[in-house]
């Protein structure tokens, strides 16, 4: 092998490494998987903040009919992105990103007041291990879906939002199937991907100590915000800051 060939090969390799590093650091796609009981509209303020910083934000409006359906819905959105994405999950959305995050085009995971399951765990398993303060979940008449009593919605889900906003969220909530909440995670993406966790210290939908325990187990970078479960809507600036920081670090 002659010297010129070796030099050419080395230069080509160095160029490819530099190109890859530049690409890897450029995580501009933010894919948000909303939780159960609230649609994606509550993410509008955080989305506008992120987009003003040059990020491309998409919110998954998954059906919450089963975990498999919701992972598939998330993957359809990921397929539309140009380049790597940061996955963000709120509440039940944490179950979804834990499975969907195994894709090679997912650079990292952000759990916002979310469930962060290990292999073989369901939402029901985690919630029952440290029951939350709020206990106003109801069943639909057919026994297949769950919802939060609208009269308790503000207190249990969005206590730090203005009453009109909390009232609208209560009236536009998305019912969740029991099947989705009973599904067990197979392969947690946080075992191989960088992760960040926002703990809502006044959360009445997920016990804050459970959020802390799940984050510690996963080795996530943790930020605590004095907020209700609807932290993404009541503290959009702080949540957007965490997501933006995660996008920068996940790319490296």
Descriptive account of the structure:
- The protein is an alpha/beta fold and 252 residues long.
- It has one domain: Alpha/Beta hydrolase fold, catalytic domain (Rossmann fold, 3-Layer(aba) Sandwich).
- The chain has helices spanning 3-24, 44-52, 67-79, 93-100, 123-129, 153-157, 163-171, 178-182, 208-218, 231-234, 236-250; strands at 29-33, 56-60, 85-91, 106-114, 137-139, 145-148, 176-177, 194-200, 221-225.
- A six-stranded parallel β-sheet has the order 2-1-3-4-8-9, with helices on both faces. A three-stranded antiparallel β-sheet has the order 5-6-7.
- Helix 2 (44-52) packs across helix 11 and helix 3 packs across helix 4 (93-100).
- The radius of gyration is 20 Å and the shape is globular.
- The model is unreliable at 5-24 (pLDDT under 50).
Q: What layout of secondary structure does this protein have?
A:
Elements: H1 3-24, E1 29-33, H2 44-52, E2 56-60, H3 67-79, E3 85-91, H4 93-100, E4 106-114, H5 123-129, E5 137-139, E6 145-148, H6 153-157, H7 163-171, E7 176-177, H8 178-182, E8 194-200, H9 208-218, E9 221-225, H10 231-234, H11 236-250
Parallel strand pairs: 1-2, 1-3, 3-4, 4-8, 8-9
Antiparallel strand pairs: 5-6, 6-7
Largest sheet data: 6 strands, parallel
- Name the structural class: alpha/beta
**Whole-number radius of gyration?**
20 Å
Share of residues in helices: 40-55%
**Strand neighbour order, sheet with most strands:** 2-1-3-4-8-9
The overall pLDDT average reads: 92
Instruction: Please tally the helical runs, counting DSSP H or I stretches of 4 or more residues.
Output: 11
Distance N to C terminus = 35 Å
CATH architecture: 3-Layer(aba) Sandwich
In the CATH scheme, the class would be Alpha Beta
The count of DSSP E runs of length 2 or more, i.e. the number of strands, is 9
Strand content: 15-25%
Full CATH superfamily name? Alpha/Beta hydrolase fold, catalytic domain
Number of domains as seen in the coordinates: 1
Q: What shape does the CA trace take?
A: globular
């Amino acid at each position: 092998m002659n010297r010129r060939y070796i030099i050419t090969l080395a230069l080509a390799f160095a160029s490819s490494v530099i190109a890859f590093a530049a690409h890897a650091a450029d995580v501009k796609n933010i894919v948000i998987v909303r939780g159960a009981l609230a649609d994606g509209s509550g993410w509008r303020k955080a989305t506008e903040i992120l987009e003003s910083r040059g990020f491309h934000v998409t919110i998954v409006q998954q059906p919450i009919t089963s975990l498999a359906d919701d992972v598939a819905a998330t993957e359809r959105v990921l397929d539309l992105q140009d380049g790597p994405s940061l996955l963000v999950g709120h509440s039940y959305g944490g179950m979804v990103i834990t499975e969907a995050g195994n894709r090679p085009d997912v650079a990292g995971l952000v759990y916002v007041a979310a469930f962060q399951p290990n292999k073989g765990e369901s939402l029901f398993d985690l919630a029952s291990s440290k029951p939350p303060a709020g206990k106003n979940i109801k069943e639909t008449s057919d026994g297949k879906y769950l919802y939060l009593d609208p009269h308790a919605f503000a207190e249990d889900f969005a206590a730090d939002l203005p009453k009109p906003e909390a009232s609208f969220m209560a009236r536009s909530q998305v019912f969740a199937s029991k099947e989705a909440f009973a599904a067990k995670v197979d392969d947690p993406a946080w075992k191989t991907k960088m992760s960040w966790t926002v703990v809502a210290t006044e959360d009445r939908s997920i016990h804050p100590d459970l959020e802390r325990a799940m984050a510690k187990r996963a080795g996530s970078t943790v930020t605590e915000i004095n907020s209700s479960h609807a932290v993404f809507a009541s503290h959009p600036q702080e949540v957007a800051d965490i997501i933006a920081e995660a996008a920068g670090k996940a790319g490296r």
